[in-house]
Amino acid sequence: MFVNWQLRELNLKVVYYGPALSGKTTNLEQIYARIDPRRRGELVSLKTHEDRTLYFDFLQLELGKIAGLTPKVQLYTVPGQVYYEASRRIVLRGVDGLVFVADSAINRLNENLESWESMKMNLAGLDIPLPTLPVVVQLNKRDLPNAMTIATLKEMLQVNGSPLFEAEARHGKGVPETLKAIINGVMRSVQRELA
Amino acid sequence: MDLSSSTLKLRGGLTLYPSQIQAIEKLMDDLVEKLPAPFAFLVEGSGQTISFVGKRWSNGKEIDVTALGALVAADMAASQEIARLTGEYQAYQLVLRQGETASTFISEVGKSMALLVQVSRDVPMGWARIHIIETAQKIADAVMRVNVDDESKLEILDDNLQELLNSSLDSMWSEDSDVR
């Protein structure tokens, strides 16, 4: 978080985390396509030649004046592929809120678990205990025929009290709900911190 | 009156007061004039713009400062990580990119900021390097000083915060999409 007191500007960083191909970039693409262009910047994507996220995707939203402040929210994704661990750790620096995008496909359970554990480990390495951070879980690809049940995913990931949303990100379903929930969570957390 | 206390640090974050921003902008103005450089750009560690001084146009195109901020911070963070992994980390490290007509320097500023400066190839590298590092150190010092007159409390008091946020997000959102 960066506060420019002169401009009463509150800059917040939200990171979309999750296993490879779970739909993190798709979330940002949908947000980019559906948000009023006057209220967002350009979508920056650092991709490999194979169109996979190499470092991060980035999109900034400007929420307008709220409660005397001008909040700007920076959305980042991490690269999901296992060997980009160092890049994920870098992207998590200064994070104010997390969206964990889980893949509902039954054969991706292990990848979800590994990613969740790597997220906790990377946050611990940055001295950010997971329970202190607003987290929203998005169960993506709910339209797959082999989608796991929500109860199974909740139990396996041990999501304790974090808001949880079903999504079909490629159709935009669940994307705005997830975004709203994480922004609300982060702002509540900032409000508490500044109180 | 100056206090030699650190700035208000929220979790992993940074708060800058008006006097600090003014001091930073003065230092950056001086740097741009002295080198000379078309522009200098200071970002917070997660890519948020702190200050941009100089021309916002490059090769006839307006610079996308928001995108540039994210990339500068990421570049600096990657360099720090490379330095850490190879055991060569040092404070105020500098990354240089030599282009055909201009060179770009990115310098670490304290622990949580990065400074990008672009200079013409006519400007001697050593001269640019010395002044950029010196400015980076002065900016880091300026951020450590808080003027007590500035220490007003920043609060978000509104009880309807959630409603206001949701209403703002709803007004920005369109169900129509041009995603292919």
Structure description:
The complex is a heterodimer of chains A (195) and B (180). Chain A has 195 residues and is an alpha/beta fold. Chain A has helices spanning 24-34, 85-92, 109-125, 150-157, 175-194; strands at 2-4, 9-17, 44-47, 53-62, 70-77, 97-103, 135-140, 164-166. Chain A has one domain (11-194): P-loop containing nucleotide triphosphate hydrolases (Rossmann fold). In chain A, strands 1, 2, 3, 4, 5, 6, 7 and 8 form an 8-stranded mixed beta sheet that branches. In chain A, helix 2 (85-92) packs across helix 3 (109-125). Chain A is globular. In chain A, 54% of the residues are buried. With 180 residues, chain B is of the alpha+beta class. In chain B, 39% of the residues lie in helices and 24% in strands. Chain B contains 4 helices and 10 strands. In chain B, strands 4-3-9-8-7 form a 5-stranded antiparallel beta sheet, with helices on both faces. A two-stranded antiparallel sheet of chain B has the order 1-10. In chain B, a hairpin with a 3-residue loop joins strand 7 and strand 8 (102-109). In chain B, helix 1 (18-34) packs antiparallel against helix 3. Chain B starts with a strand and ends in an 8-residue tail after the last helix. At the A-B interface, strand 1, helix 1, strand 4, strand 5 and helix 2 of A face strand 2, helix 2 and helix 4 of B. Strand 1 (2-4) of chain A pairs parallel with strand 2 (14-16) of chain B.
